[in-house]
Amino acid sequence: MEVNLRKSSLVRMLFLCVIVISNTSWLIAQQAYYPVANAEWETRSPSEVGLDPTGIQSAVEIALENDNPVERDLRLAILRSFSREPYHQLAGPTRERGNPAGLIIKNGYIAAQWGDVERVDMTFSVTKSYLSTMAGLALDDGLIQNVDEQVNKYVWDETFDGAHNSKITWKHLLQQNSDWYGSLFGIYDWTDRPPREGSIDDWRNRPLHEPGTHYKYNDVRVNLLAYSLLQVWRRPLPMVLKERIMDPIGASTTWRWHGYDNTFTLIDGIMMQSVSGGGHHGGGLFINTLDHARFGLLFARRGNWNGQQLISESWMDEIAKPSEPFAEYGYMWWTLKGDTKWENVPDHVYYAAGFGGNYIIVDEENDLVIVLRWIDNSSLEDFVSTVYQSMN
Questions:
Q1: Residues 315 and 384 in one domain
Q2: Per-residue pLDDT at 9
């Protein structure tokens, strides 16, 4: 009888331990502050969240005094910036940009803000980090089995035909090292950021790199990932983003995710737009600074929002791992694991970056999120370094 009682007590203790361990993340989430939807985001003074007020004020001044030189009329900015690309033109919507704006979020609270944080602006390649999240959710749901699968298993039209393109995996697309070749919605891969030397014939007939061995920043291939994910989800990606991420984190209803005018495709008898991963030809994500900050906070909290695991921790573990051919890039998030080093900033920090000085900077370990709009890129390190110097 005594032995049975001991066994019974041991079983109860083990059972309680399992319950405690399984609910640890939930308990932590309940103790942490999360901004409520449709309510004012709570603020704390820098000193209340362990930041030096003088240092934070210096950082804010850096952001305000170093407006990005890109034109206010983003139609002109885009056309001028990419004018050397053959056949480049606007294919999606644009919007005149605002003034510098930003937020510093520490422990979930607003520790500093400047500019119009409610203004909806283009965000260019920051969109890529949102697109990457759509891939993560597809994996979480089992719509994609793993990132090392060849994409032509799921997208079996002519897009991935051929000995080279058929080798391309989801991981290659996410890390921008697929070297996919072809035309997507009328735009050739080789027209996007071609080399400084050579001619159209040289670029068109370039030697191909084995998928996974050569990094190349290329919006056509990013848009190919969006197109491929649309085939898997069989729903417009903005709808998935809204339902799975933006609504649960309490984002506003003002953001929009656009593709190009001609990027519609027929799926299950319904015409759907394939969105773009940036504003290279217009389009991409149009969003305000506060919504960016909510998205960044979700990542700083490892995909958990107030006890609800919106993105799996396994995906969070992968997104910022440096890719083999280019250590500064993960799954459409930039890392500090390669040649890029910011003074005073730890290399576990990762960030989303877009044309014109748009950034979301995430530090899981310090529960810190920084959102910057329209900062001069040359001042970015100075700004971030100043914030980290202010940590007590």
A1: yes
A2: 53
